[in-house]
Automatic annotation (TrEMBL):
Residues annotated as binding substrate: G150, D151, N152, L153, R172
This protein's name: Putative 4-hydroxy-4-methyl-2-oxoglutarate aldolase
Cofactor(s) the protein requires to work: Mg(2+); a divalent metal cation
Entry-linked Pfam families: RraA-like (PF03737)
Claim: Magnesium is one of the keywords in the record: yes
Classification via SUPFAM superfamilies: RraA-like
Length: 305
């Protein structure tokens, strides 16, 4: 049993390295299936090209692929977004807030000051953001006095990340935030109060957002229906799966309009004849389709018809 105790101590110490920020070793331990590039802090760095393609993925497509991979707890709904039509896609920088406890809060503030942190604790994660990040925070669902940001911090967030936020908490200054072009906030509610009786507990550790478990570096896909948190190692698979579905749908709808096939033929398992027709259609329409040409070429390489 000594190895279990050693592992526990290693994780505990690693998780608390640099005050309340998770260590690089701990981050790598949590995400062993990610084999790509990482940030200096250890978070998986899913390529920008994948993030850009992820914007076209629907919530249903991402959710379905995750379920097929055995990930059943990655979606959360019930948000009050700032905008219904501005998706948020990026790499999660996770933050845990808890109800204030003075003795713990004082220690956190003291440690942060020693490490050069400036301002209130809810601004500390903002200073760590880089372009492509999404500030994801569990504020234990607090609405009144649970407003993690207003328009000042919102402008700072967008300046650093060119992205939005997902808060299991509230925000203030809805009118001011709505003026930040490209910014969106998925929150539990809106309230004019200021943040009170809330303390920062950790940065870049696993957190719970409603029914979902979120790790640092997960890909956030937030749209009107809700938010999906995608493990980094599955991000590209979800994008490719979505693109294949999109292409097959375009082909099927087009052939139905032409009257070449019946609805029954398109809605059931395709015959070899239809699959061959689909491959030829991909080749002849490659430059017109809403999927990168390189991805279509890669798909064609794997087809045997």
């Amino acid at each position: 049993m000594n190895w279990i105790k050693s592992l526990f101590l290693m994780l505990l110490v690693g998780n608390l390295t640099w005050g309340q920020t998770a260590s690089k070793d701990y981050m790598i331990f949590l995400t062993p299936q990610w084999e790509g590039e990482r940030f200096e802090d250890g978070r998986p760095k899913v390529p920008n090209s994948v993030l850009e393609r992820m914007k076209s993925v629907t919530i249903e497509e991402a959710w379905g692929t995750l379920r097929n991979e055995g990930y059943h707890n990655q979606f959360e709904g019930g948000w009050e977004p700032l905008h219904d039509d501005v998706p948020v896609v990026g790499r999660a920088l996770t933050v845990q807030y808890m109800p204030n406890r003075p003795d713990v809060s004082d220690q956190i503030k003291k440690k942060g000051k020693e490490e050069g942190q400036i301002g209130n604790t809810n601004s500390w994660p903002i200073d760590m953001l880089v372009e492509g990040d999404v500030y994801v925070a569990d504020g234990f669902g607090k609405i009144v006095d649970g407003t993690l940001i207003g328009d000042n911090l919102g402008n700072s967030i967008y300046a650093k990340s060119k992205n939005g936020v997902v808060f299991n908490a509230s925000s203030r200054d809805m009118e001011g935030l709505s003026e930040i072009e490209g910014f969106n906030a998925f929150v539990r509610g809106w309230h004019p109060s200021f943040l009170q009786e809330v303390m920062l507990e950790s940065i870049n550790s696993p957190i719970r957002i409603g029914a979902a478990t979120v790790l640092p570096g997960d890909i956030v896909l937030a749209k009107k229906e809700g938010v999906v948190f995608i493990p980094a190692h599955l991000a590209e698979k979800i994008v490719v799966t979505s693109e294949v579905v999109r292409l097959r749908d375009l082909f099927g709808i087009g052939r139905l309009k032409e009257g070449k096939y019946t609805p029954g033929q398109i809605d059931s398992k395709w015959t070899d004849e239809i699959e061959k027709d689909f491959s030829q259609w991909l080749k002849s329409h490659m430059d017109e389709l809403p999927v990168p040409k390189e991805q279509i070429q890669e798909l064609l390489k794997k087809r045997t018809w």
